[in-house]
Amino acid sequence: MAALNKQIATAAMMGISATAALAGCSSSDATDTTNSPSTSSSSAATANGADPTPGGDYADGEYSADGEYGTQDSSIGVSLTLDNGVVTEVGVEPHATNETSRDYQERFAEAVPDLVVGQDIDDVNLDRVAGSSGTPDGFNDAIQKIKDEAST
């Protein structure tokens, strides 16, 4: 029963996040676009009404970095593929060994592709995702490292 309640709560949070993200699509505020869910990596930018032309100059390719966050030396691995400055694939590897932290990182990792794939990397900056408020800081740190590496 507790597992069912947890699943329902997670689904409700995802629905609220998706609703807020869709409302943000009509805004000109660039930070709102990071929460726009997408289901197709090849057409996500145009399907969400976003301009598919990227803002920065980045080399196409596959990149990975570990992002650090918090005060307890927490980290999370991020790998992604860039095509013309747009994230076409993303993966998140939890590094936590503590059961609670690992749970947050795993739920975060499951939610990230829907929020990031199809987005210009310059627009990717996650806040609270799947109930996790610390893990996005590590993700954003890894994204910055990847941007630095991919800059042309």
H/I helix tally: 4
Mean residue pLDDT: 74
Strand content: 15-25%
Q: What number of domains?
A: 1
Q: Which percent range fits the helix content? A: 40-55%
| Main sheet record | 3 strands, antiparallel
Shape: globular
Describe, in short, the structure shown.
The protein is of the alpha+beta class and 152 residues long.
Describe this structure in words.
This protein has 152 residues and is an alpha+beta fold. The chain has one domain (2-150). Helices cover 41% and strands 18% of the residues. Strands 1-2-3 form a three-stranded antiparallel beta sheet. It is globular, with a radius of gyration of 15 Å. The termini are far apart. The model is unreliable at 1-6 and 9-54 (pLDDT under 50).
Strand-helix topology:
Blueprint: H1 2-25, H2 44-47, E1 61-69, E2 74-83, E3 86-94, H3 99-116, H4 135-150
Antiparallel strand pairs: 1-2, 2-3
Characteristics:
alpha+beta; 152 residues; 3 strands
